[in-house]
Design goal:
Layout (H helix, E strand, L loop, with lengths): L2 H8 L2 H17 L20 E3 L4 E18 L8 E6 L4 E9 L2 E8 L7 H4 L3 E10 L3 E16 L3 H4 L9 E17 L7 H5 L3 E3 L3 E16 L19 E21 L3 E22 L3 E23 L3 E15 L4 E18 L4 H8 L7
Antiparallel strand pairs: 1-9, 2-3, 2-4, 2-15, 3-7, 4-5, 6-7, 7-8, 8-10, 10-11, 11-12, 12-13, 13-14, 14-15
Length: 374
Amino acid sequence: MSRAFRSLLRSNLFPGLLLLVHWSMPRQLHAQEPEPADTLLNAGFDPERVVDHTHMITMRIYNSTKFNSFSISDRSTGADGGNTLTYQPNNQVNLGVGASYRALTLNLGFGFGFLNKDDAVKGTTNYFDAQGNLFAKTLATNLFFQRYRGYYIDGIDKALLGWEVPSVLPYRSDVVQSNIGLSTLYIFNNDRFSYRAAFNQDSWQRRSAGSFLAGGYATYYTIRADSSLVPAALSALYDSSLYIRRGDFVDAGPMGGYAHTFVIARHVFITLSYVVGVGLSTYRTTVSLPGGVEATERQVSAGFHGQGRSALGYNGSRFTVALTYNLENVNYSIGTDESFQWNVGNVRFNVAWRIDRRIKLIDRVLERLPFSVG
């Protein structure tokens, strides 16, 4: 179970949302469910599989955690697959509200002190994190831009490192990470399968369906620190190529995979999606060697990109509740047995309801555009 998901379960908001689901669901189960008139009026979807609700106002409240971590690995040392050092930020749990209409979605999340009380354990992370998931009928696109300062080392006792820091876990305020990237996928079976139903709550997948996916990705990643990311006490466990003090990584390539939504009794759904990409990566690293010597290394090699999405919940004509998970993972080969990898993503618990109203101003603006946006 991920740290982000455990933070969600521990938050004070989670029980309250479950009570709201319990209060609302019986009304939904007994409500009359309108049927789409035909495929044309249903945004092109097969009405037996998907009911489009993008022309209704979808309101939501949510509880979310965004995350960003990185790790360095040396498979040539140690047992059970080698040694891995993982840096984690002190993720913040957010409470938010949002709305969707047509192709537009706006979500506003805020961190509150009563949801985030572990600075004494994990240290403080300052960050800017912008993540966007754009789900059209035929395309699914992830956009992200992050800048994080302050990481703790997961699974290591600070006494082993000989560090004197105020937090319980070994913490480094000097580590700064930034990344920007995008990935986009074409949904082949887009008449019967909808990403929006699971992840944007403004459609309803009524029967099971899946689709093959194909697209591409591009990312730029930087890491900066005052000294090697491998603490001196652990230097014997890692090759010197991993004594990274700063690094710049670029990668791009094609990717492909499959997504499927399993529907039970037209309302309960489970969505699973995974794609993998193999492309070209290039990086430049500055490593801190013993004796205060620094060296710069450059390399072009194969890069590996994985993207996972999953969702679980209840959906209907007016009401939906869903737990969603999004992850992008990028892996660089530093040497034969050495690697550097990072990930970006979010966990979100959503409660949403739909209002059968039209916003005429937005309709007029979108209808005058020279291209279709939903």
